Inverse folding.
């Protein structure tokens, strides 16, 4: 099974988000969220968020094998260098090209999991993580002042 088939299967599993907010903002607060999103969508805040995700991913790499997958280019990097992880997240979130860039990290181990970073979101989505992977990601996210919660519709 190639990596894109593995990812397709993982996308069907339970999802969580690593987010700057502890829970989804209620619909009736949408205008306030829009103001918050505008505040977050500036280079300084995006750079800070990028650093937090890189810290989580590079620390996670100490415990689990990772593969980087760039779906737009269909490039897979198995057992990347730390700098490759950092550059992949930076290119996704801070790259010059204004498109819906996506970078995916496949966590290898007893059970694979998928971590997806998407340019238009201020969160990272986790698919198919087992309890131990999720426990570790929660600890790493908390150390960066971020929250792990179920994705919308999976509460």
């Amino acid at each position: 099974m190639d990596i894109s088939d593995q990812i397709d299967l993982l996308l069907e599993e339970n999802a969580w988000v690593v987010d700057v907010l502890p829970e989804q903002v209620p619909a009736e607060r949408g205008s306030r969220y829009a103001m918050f999103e505008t505040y977050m969508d500036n280079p300084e805040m995006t750079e800070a968020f990028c650093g937090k995700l890189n810290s989580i991913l590079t620390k996670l790499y100490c415990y689990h094998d990772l593969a980087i997958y760039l779906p737009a280019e269909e490039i897979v990097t198995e057992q990347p260098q730390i700098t490759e992880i950092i550059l992949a997240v930076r290119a996704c979130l801070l790259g010059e090209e204004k498109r819906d860039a996506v970078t995916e990290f496949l966590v290898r181990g007893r059970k694979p999991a998928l971590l997806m970073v998407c340019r238009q979101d201020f969160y990272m989505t986790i698919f198919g993580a087992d309890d131990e992977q999720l426990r570790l990601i929660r600890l790493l996210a908390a150390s960066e002042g971020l929250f792990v919660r179920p994705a919308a519709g999976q509460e």
